[in-house]
TrEMBL record, chains A, B:
CDD domains documented for this protein: PGDH
Entry keyword annotation includes Oxidoreductase: yes
Domain Enoyl reductase (ER), first and last residues per copy: 15-335
UniProt-recorded name of the protein: NADP-dependent oxidoreductase
One MF annotation (Gene Ontology) recorded for this entry: oxidoreductase activity, acting on the CH-CH group of donors, NAD or NADP as acceptor
Keyword check for Oxidoreductase: yes
Organism field: Flexivirga endophytica
Amino acid sequence: MTTTTQIRLAARPVGEPQDTDFEFVTTDLPELADGQVLLRTIYLSLDPYMRGRMSAAKSYAEPVEVGDVMVGGTVCEVMESRSPERAVGDIVLAYTGWQTYAVAGARHTRKLDPQAAPISTALGVLGMPGFTAYAGLLAIGRPQPGETVAVAAATGPVGSAVGQIAKVKGARAVGIAGRPDKCRALIEEFGFDAAVDHRSESFREELAETTPDGVDVYFENVAGPVGAAVTRRLNKFARVPVCGLVANYNATQAPEGPDQLPAYLGAILTLSLTVRGFIQSEFVPTHHDDFLRDMAGWIADGSVRYREDVVDGLDNTLETFRGLLAGRNFGKSLVRVGTDPTIA
Amino acid sequence: MTTTTQIRLAARPVGEPQDTDFEFVTTDLPELADGQVLLRTIYLSLDPYMRGRMSAAKSYAEPVEVGDVMVGGTVCEVMESRSPERAVGDIVLAYTGWQTYAVAGARHTRKLDPQAAPISTALGVLGMPGFTAYAGLLAIGRPQPGETVAVAAATGPVGSAVGQIAKVKGARAVGIAGRPDKCRALIEEFGFDAAVDHRSESFREELAETTPDGVDVYFENVAGPVGAAVTRRLNKFARVPVCGLVANYNATQAPEGPDQLPAYLGAILTLSLTVRGFIQSEFVPTHHDDFLRDMAGWIADGSVRYREDVVDGLDNTLETFRGLLAGRNFGKSLVRVGTDPTIA
């Protein structure tokens, strides 16, 4: 018998998730059935979309039920196998959530090659966040050489990839982040053309100065006041892939007025904007093979760099998740739940 | 010397345009130069976009300057010609605005064939409003057979064409209008599948009942509470061509809260919506020839019907325009400024 320690949703959070909204449970795992594997969690990915899964509100995926283990992408080691497709010791990408061990169908895992790339990247630049950036920017944003691409949360795994892919495509990349050290990293580490700190008192003026030709693609992943400021810089026929709205995720009611929707629709009309929401899964059939090939190449040739923010221990998951929603992370947020055997 | 009576913008309206925002001026027209024609206005088109032209705010076209004649599409008779391309007696489409006579370059007019269609239709179903419906619905909305298309201001020249073209393409058409007689006309005259009166106390329930499979295309030309109600009915991957926002045109400031923008962006994200503003001129190069051929055919075979709301006399222009913004017209709003020689 293997036991697993799980973080289960105990109540639906109102506003920022509290410790009392979750419970830690240690429980026995069932015996493996044919085709299943026993997985030990190495890395757990923390992503903003998880806030939506904690709520009962209609979203693009079913909510986590109260009493269930919180969902999430993981990189795991195969400890036992009753599938010919997976061997003990294999490192796999899985979706086993906030827990230390899990039983899963082998077919719901993807085997990773630790020689090709660090295994944690399967949750970041070579995983869902990287693909979100790739698909949203290229399929919806369609940046042209010489155009300006703006993105917020720009040191995050999605934002940093958006800016760097924009550069690969010949566009100008302007990143928005929430701390001076993040802004420095945008320029020095990720090669953005300009960086703006949205916590600066002169944010709007700095945004205008760093987008002298306006903005042709705004990759929207935060909304709120940052989104409003970028909207004022949009050019005619600009494209706005809407990937996330972190600024609103903890909101408990519609904010006080005035109502900004009429002005937003007015901008859509007068500028002939394209605003398009998307979930990366829509583009898997058409773009995922290209993504894996392109992104691996860009990492290899140095066009795309990435940064990870790794916290050790499942116990720290919730505090790390709150920090993610508040922008306290710096790079792709990961919890190292157990030892990474590929690191010497 | 020919004199013309003009309606000039005297002040930028605040809210609903007032009589004092305009002045009537009678003035001499200049002699014709080479290539010019003297035009007598027969029909003046009144369209919601004109409210935007009265304001100094950034829009998709330059504002009318205070002191200038209000702009607008017209159907005119050629009274004198110094162009080999136009003969006296020709009926032409022009853009000579709110006045009884005008001098224009012959090349800025398009000759109409009174035998092919009533000349007033060049300002409606076969003109800019019809093309707005055609291009926005087909290039952006892309209704598929069996899908549901919803449109408000549905007895207007754009809305009625949207619903009828949707039917031609095999979609279900649901029209929203503001009076019982308009709703009856949607069913009996324009062949919509369902009609809903947005002034009904049970509007939201009726909208839900008449869109049991949700809404796949919402042709947005009003916004406001009607737009908000339809947004709640949108299906995943729905398309929203944004063509106009009549509900907001007279607004003098952002409405009181709560702020509806976060919820709207939330819908865009969770439903993977495409919201796309447009001005019909964008699609002239790619779609206008097809439009003229298709629409003439649909009128000829009875697939598309149209209704005009003709008011006589330039003196009545402003009151008619205020009625248009308030939804008091019923069909394409036209002012018959002078005698129509093609009507027996």
